[in-house]
Design goal:
By secondary structure, the protein is an all-beta fold. Helix content is 0%, strand content 41%.
Length: 169
Amino acid sequence: MAFVTGSSRYGATELVFWDADSGQLGTLGGNESANRRTPVFSPDGSWIAFEQSAQIYLIRSDGQGLPVNFSTGSGQHPVWHPDGASIFFIGQDGSIYRAAVDRTSRTSVELAMRLRSFRETFGLFPSADRILLPSPELVTGAQETETATSASDSSSTLTFVINWFQELQ
């Protein structure tokens, strides 16, 4: 298990690794103060992607080794593709990018919209053919969307962006 420690929104936070078998706690990527957030395990559990200083980093999930800078530009909110071969993330311009983990390619996901804030989040549908966004108000130029409202809570709205091109499936 990996989780974030720290209490300040803009202060130093650290990624902590807990080995369930041994009960050991350790800091991922060294003990230096950092602003590390949003740890996400790869589908096979061998890597963790996380944010640090507006960049995406990868580190082995066993806590061994140093973090590797994955994003060549800025990036936040990493989401693994279900096959583990690529990671989606938000660039500073609000675009959602998909980059190969082996670093052979990085492409912008061609959306008819951009997130309005670099800090907004998104989710990848398990089949990787849809992206879940928190609210239509958070995107500009949103088209080709479906909105679903929870029957139990009419104030909860989910927006699904549909009709992705074949490359993302």
